[in-house]
Amino acid sequence: MQKNNRSLSVALAQLNLCVGDIAGNTQQVIKAITEAKAQQADVIVFPELSLSSYPPEDLVYRADFLQQCEQAIELIKPHTFGITALVGLPMLRDYLIHNSAYVLQDGVIIGEYHKQDLPNYRVFDEKRWFEPGQGSLLVEIKGVRAGILICEDIWHDAPMEAVMALGAEVVLVLNASPYSHDKPEKREQVVLRQVLKHKVPMAYVNLVGGQDELVFDGDSMLISREGVRTLRAPLFEAGVFVGELAIDPTNTAVVATHQHEALEAHIYKALVTGVRDYVHKNGFKGVLLGLSGGIDSALTLAIAADALGAAHVEAIMMPFRYTAAMSVEDASEQARIMGVNYRQIPIEPIYDSFVQSLAPEFQGFKADVTEENLQARIRGMLLMSMSNKFGKLLLTTSNKSETAVGYATLYGDMAGAFGPLKDVYKTLVYRLAVYRNTLGVVIPERVITRPPSAELAPGQVDQDSLPPYAILDGILERFIEQDEVLETIVDAGFELATVRRVVNLVLLNEYKRRQAAPGVRITRRGFGKDWRYPMTSAWRKQLPLN
């Protein structure tokens, strides 16, 4: 009998799960299976480590945690009659912990697979937690031989070649692939390379949502054996997306789905998702932030209101004698436009009290950056006090450019629990502000066009202390994300003395970054678990800095 025109109806369970919420994740899995069955799907594929969510980190060392994941499988089994389900979980086998998946079909487990290639770079530490699997898995679904792989496996050739050697006619991949601004394109290239090389259709399912500093964008897909993306799940949107995956070669024309949004659009969605999930998954009532009338706090306010709704956001303007009238006006105007709770607390009386108390100790010393930082620290103290009193999470507003070179005050504007702009360079802050206003103007125009200033001294602007942001960000991106040596950065067109100064500031200020709030990672290399430079190091002295 000629075998042709076979296909599988595949459900991509692009879910927003929470690390450690095994009961909640299990209910999401069961609900998704029910939805997939209602749409007559043959198979439903869940993200990597679905039951624990990703990354569970050192929770996997707890026997009770692993046991709860296994117990959850027993709750899921009865719901798999009439469908095949691929569910990820950490699995203990022969005293070794694996990043694994069960294949459930008609109420029973028909296979288990252990991830073979464990990533151990950038934000990944899987070799700390897991042992690599040693074999491939092939299961039959509706008469189709399906190979099972997990995430990093398809970024390498050996696991794919091994499952194809077993006779796979389709490959189903569970993933927890975190977002960075260039990741959607890279991810699709990897999938297409494997599909076209082996002439095999593929289902790729990814996690969605924020988890600490990581944010997952979904971007799940079905790719035909001809390399056409026949289903594209939307970025940053949870759901069960069902499509047909042709198994045999076909001459039928397939229409590709739409392309990704503009860069600023999906970066902005990543930031909104990261804030929303950090606040909700940690059980906070809402957020508050200091609104200065500057670009960073303006963008942070827009992100927070879009993430949580205006009713759950509070903005506090804390003017001082150096605060420009336009800053007060613009902060008030943005709060009004966005409909957030807004209040003003002048800090001059508090500042005067501090200065008076310190006067005997500071006698004989001239006023300097100490007094500037005192303003920032008073604001930080007020914000933290309101955070404590109202049970709202405090958002910091520092951007990546400032964090990199230490242009921020410890226990001042660095105070807070989460930093939406922590991985956003200053030049990108402006682009995102312009983008947000295309959705509806919420940031006053002169906030975007005026020179940036901390307003801690008369007439102060950021470029009194820093190179122009276009130059600063160009140097930072090369040094931080691409690990370029100083000579290479200079060869790219940057002035030697400026490069020396910027690199020196980056290395000197590691101690500040260790005390900074976590924040959404959107670049190839964000500060946090993705950046592990020592605080105490003589290596800086070995560089050609002088």
Automatic annotation (TrEMBL):
Pfam families: CN_hydrolase (PF00795), NAD_synthase (PF02540). One of its GO terms (molecular function) is ATP binding. Pathway: Cofactor biosynthesis; NAD(+) biosynthesis; NAD(+) from deamido-NAD(+) (L-Gln route): step 1/1. InterPro entries: C-N_Hydrolase, C-N_Hydrolase_sf, Gln-dep_NAD_synthase, NAD/GMP_synthase, NAD_synthase, Rossmann-like_a/b/a_fold. It catalyses: deamido-NAD(+) + L-glutamine + ATP + H2O = L-glutamate + AMP + diphosphate + NAD(+) + H(+). Catalyzes the ATP-dependent amidation of deamido-NAD to form NAD. Uses L-glutamine as a nitrogen source. This is Glutamine-dependent NAD(+) synthetase. It comes from Thiothrix eikelboomii.
